[in-house]
Amino acid sequence: MVEYKKWFKALIIYTSLLLFSIFCFNYFVNPYNIFYVRKIHNFNEKKIENKEYLQKARDIVVLKPDVILLGTSRTQIGLDPNYYYKKTGDTAYNLGLSGANMYEQRLYFDYSLLVNPNLEKVIIGLDFEAFNEYRPNTATFTEDRLNSKLFKINDLLINLLTYQATRDSFKVISDNFYNESMYTFNTILKNGSHNEEAILSQHIELLDSGKNRFYDHLKEHLQSETVLKKYKLSRNRLNDLHYIINTSRSHNIELIIFIHPIHAIQLEGILKAGLWDEFEKWKNEVVELTPVWDFTGYNFITTSSPNNFNIYLDQSHYRKKVGNLIFDKILSYNENYSTEFGVILTNKNISSYLKTIRIDRNNWESDNQNIVDIINEL
Asked: What is the CATH number of domain 14-376?
């Protein structure tokens, strides 16, 4: 019996030491970039990118930003908090979340207000796809973690004590040392925005190999039942936006809303999917809630060449230089911006504006029949 007790005691001690070692190892490697530990070159500098929703929830708790930039990956990739600081002198955090529908954006807005009741300004970039009734919550989205400012026990266990976390820690160390798998690594910067250079390098490499992301990405959208293949404008998602508007008013939060400048190729994809009327209906419904800056249409930005990445990274995501122009317009820093890019839509002008866009679309199609033919073959 004494020997048994000694063996059992040793088992508990060694098991505890093993678990503690795994805990510390995964914490200091920090494979998902959710803990604030030092990054070491060739060791843990680059991270695996699959914990974005958790990472940004933790950033909100730690940073408590007074200004947030809300939206999907278009916000995350296109809006630069550094440029915002340059223009305003205020620090902003990019809370863009890949694939987020309006419900998810609403909850992250609520969470930002929960951890910082003094939230001053919210800038939201709207996407047509985020209002799709058939667009579910993102797989990595967990509503429960947004109810507390502390780590949920499940998040801690999953990210520090699981086999997968330990395996990913070894992968991070190996890939950092040998500089491998650079496109699977976390490219979210400290300010929440995306590392544009990482995407740019990848897309240039794909274009050199004969794959054009402007068309390939659109094909993915057309084939996805949560993006364009199956679409119904959701009243609940519109109510989520309405909630953000009303809550901002009641808390004296300055709210600026704009529609992202998707490329003309994406607009043509919406037409090909038979959703142009639904697209216009969506804009009308948004304008019923609030005036909104609209940067869609056919202008010198959205009709740029799809054979380079000077303006866009693909038909859906614009570069930060375009986001800077958006900031110039919506923040009234008007020394350089063009009057052709961006207009405030209201109940008074939306009907005529939508008609103008239809005319511009027909003219663009006539001048770019080769692009239209490619899209029709997708």
From this structure: 3.40.50.1110
Burial class (CB in 10 A: 0-12, 13-18, 19+), 74: buried
Strands, E assignment, the chain: 47-48, 67-71, 92-96, 121-126, 185-186, 254-259, 292-294, 343-345
Q: Residue 300: which of 268, 269, 270, 339 has the closest Cα? A: 339
- Decide if 227 contacts 135 (C-beta within 8 A): yes
The HSE-up count of residue 273 (CA atoms within 13 Å, CB side) is 27
- Cβ proximity of 63 and 216 under 8 Å: no
Q: Which comes out higher in pLDDT, residue 333 or 14?
A: 14
The H or E element spanning position 52 is helix 52-63
How far is residue 181 CA from its own chain's centroid? 22
Q: Which of 281, 361, 270, 265 is nearest to 316 (CA)?
A: 265
Give dist(CA 172, CA 3) in Å, integer. Answer: 42
What distance in Å separates the CA atoms of residue 13 and residue 7, rounded to the nearest whole number? 10
Q: Which residue in 124, 75, 111 sits closest to 286, CA to CA?
A: 124
Phi then psi dihedrals of residue 259, to 5 deg: -105, 130
pLDDT of 214-234, one tens digit each? 999 999 999 999 999 999 999
- Cα–chain center distance at 97: 3
**C-beta separation of 73 from 99 below 8 A:** yes
**Encoding tokens for residue 141?**
């989205």
Q: Could you give phi then psi for residue 206, rounded to 5 degrees?
A: -65, -40
Domain segments of the chain as ranges: 14-376
pLDDT top residue among 21 and 290:
290
**211, two tokens:** 């794959």
**345, two tokens:** 């839509």
Exposure class string for 348-364: b at 16+ Cβ within 10 A, else e: eebeebbeebeebbeeb
Whether the predicted pLDDT of 272 surpasses 60:
yes
Is the Cβ–Cβ distance between 85 and 93 less than 8 Å?
A: no
Cβ-contact 323, 76 below 8 angstroms: no
